[in-house]
Design a protein that fits this description.
The chain has 465 residues and is an alpha+beta fold. It has 3 domains: 161 residues, 2-Layer Sandwich (Beta-Lactamase), CATH 3.30.450.20; 83 residues, Orthogonal Bundle (Helix Hairpins); 148 residues, Histidine kinase-like ATPase, C-terminal domain (Heat Shock Protein 90, 2-Layer Sandwich). Helices cover 57% and strands 18% of the residues. The protein has a 5-stranded antiparallel sheet with strand order 2-1-5-4-3, with helices on both faces. A hairpin with a 4-residue loop joins strand 3 and strand 4. Helix 4 packs parallel to helix 5, helix 6 runs parallel beside helix 10 and helix 8 runs antiparallel to helix 10. The mean pLDDT is 90. Bound molecules: adenosine-5'-triphosphate and magnesium ion.
Length: 465
């Protein structure tokens, strides 16, 4: 982005320079040519004035002072000078071959002598084989034309003098471009850097870090204002989420006590009901509902704790936890004649939110046992990859359709005909804990048709102490 901004700004400056400098260059060229013509004309008149007397008395060719002056001027200005008499015969010249030559075939000399007016212009020169720039002036003595002076130079010499001027202009343009590039670079740096930081802050917020803030001390005012607004929004969001979390946590916590009291009273009522079957069964059902409510409250509490990402992750040996939880569940599984097989090599370190590994495994085994028929098998497997480890809890139950597998992670969702007593929060908790640990959870279909509940967790390394 920075380079694009610099390119645009330099491009604009280059365009402005081109719009400005191309006509200026043309104008400069015309002005420089006019200036040269005027200067040569003035010099030709000076030389004419100096040679007037010598031309009049026919001593010009032998006038050493005049000859020296012509030679010096021609070499200083890098031009050719020729002085003719009234008949157009070369008398003094920096090019000695022209002395004694009839030069009236040079139109400018012929015209200067004929009209008595200065002649300036360009024409093709057969002698040079290229274009010639010339100034020819008559030498006047009173009203008489006693001769002519011509100063000429190949067009290329005039071009190079004009070119010197244009080179100066080009240099200034290049200098302007260099300054524009430097300014554009500084400007882009001052805009792009704070924008990048703001972008990074929005990314962090989107990834769930609600405590993130964008720097508000650099860049142009507009960007600082945006950063300020972003920070206010992030602070407000953090506050709202925090309030919601603590409400869910506190409410669930507060509900536990009256619920325990309710359960105790129901148990008491069950004893007092004695042999009355009707009251006994009503109380029994009320107890089941109370248990469901308790599980739901426990689940909500666990969820609100899982959402609290302020707690850093723990590194645990997932294989050890898996074996331990399998031992815990085995007696219950055996009661329903379900076999639990574990395939996990110890030393499988993963990084998880404290206590999450146990909760994840317990919830998945609980679900799997719920649907396992007597004589079936439940397999718990760990597959370790380079960056993460997969935990598979595979049952031989009836399985779930694709739509059900997706919906199973929703809070309070339970499949039609699911066993009573569940709260529908177990998988939501698994999902939340896996996410909070930097991993994910999904339900797949096992090869045997049951469910393969898969949780992926990032590998962890025990920090050296
Ligand atoms: N292994 C499985 N096989 C078939 N169905 C399953 C399996 N695991 C979960 N389900 C279905 O997904 C639903 C949601 O599961 P979840 O664990 O979230 O809630 P629950 O088990 O009903 O209640 P809780 O776990 O809170 O006591 C279950 O009610 C069940 O219908
Ligand atoms: Mg469950």
């Amino acid at each position: 982005m920075k380079w694009r901004l610099v390119a645009v700004m330099v491009g604009v400056v280059a365009l402005v320079l081109a719009i400005h400098d191309i006509p200026l260059a043309n104008h400069l060229e015309t002005v420089e040519r006019d200036r040269l013509a005027t200067k040569f004309e003035r010099d030709a008149f000076i030389l004419g004035g100096r040679s007037e007397e010598a031309l009049e008395d026919g001593s010009a060719a032998t006038d050493t002072g005049l000859n020296a002056m012509v030679l010096r001027y021609a070499s200083e200005e890098d031009v050719e000078v020729v002085i003719t008499d009234a008949d157009g015969i070369g008398v003094v010249s920096s090019d000695t071959t022209k002395v004694g030559e009839d030069l009236t075939n040079r139109t400018e000399i012929e015209q200067a002598l004929a009209i008595g007016e200065p002649q300036t212009g360009e024409r093709y020169s057969d002698t040079l084989g290229s274009d010639l720039f010339f100034v020819a002036v008559p030498v006047l003595s009173g009203d008489d034309r006693v001769g002519a002076v011509r100063i000429s130079a190949p067009e290329s010499i005039v071009d190079s003098r004009v070119g010197d001027q244009l080179r100066g202009l080009l240099l200034v343009a290049l200098l302007s471009l260099a300054i524009a590039s430097a300014v554009a670079w500084l400007f882009a740096a001052s805009v792009v850097r704070p924008l990048r930081r703001l972008h990074a802050a929005t990314d962090r917020l989107a990834a769930g870090d609600l405590s993130t803030r964008a720097p508000t001390d650099e860049g142009p005012r507009e960007i600082r204002d945006v950063a300020d607004s972003f920070n206010s929004m992030a602070a407000r969001t953090e506050q709202l989420v925090e309030r919601q979390r603590s409400f869910a946590g506190t409410a669930s916590h507060q509900l536990r006590t009256p619920l325990t009291a309710l359960r105790l009273r129901l148990e008491q009522l069950s004893i007092e009901a004695g042999d009355d079957e009707q009251i006994g069964s009503t109380v029994e059902n009320a107890l089941i509902e109370t248990d469901r409510l308790r599980r739901m409250i426990e689940g909500l509490l666990a969820l609100s704790r899982a959402e609290d990402t302020a707690v850093g992750p723990d590194v645990v040996d997932l294989a050890v936890v898996l074996h331990d939880r399998a031992e815990h569940w085995r007696p219950l599984a055996e009661e329903s004649d379900v076999r639990i097989d574990v395939a996990a090599a110890t030393g499988t370190m993963v990084s998880v939110v404290p206590g999450a590994a146990e909760q994840i495994i317990d919830n998945l085994i609980d679900n799997a046992l719920e649907v396992s028929a007597p004589g079936s098998r439940l397999s718990l497997t760990l597959l370790s990859g380079p960056a993460s480890t997969e935990l598979h809890v595979i049952d031989e139950g009836p399985g779930l359709s694709e739509d059900e597998r997706r919906r199973a992670f929703e809070r309070f969702w339970r499949a039609d005909g699911a066993a009573p007593g569940g709260s529908g929060l177990g998988l939501a908790i698994v999902h939340q804990l896996a996410n909070a640990s930097g991993g994910n959870a999904e339900l797949r279909t096992a090869p045997g048709g049951g469910v393969d509940a898969t949780v992926t967790l990032p590998n962890g390394r025990v920090r050296a102490t």
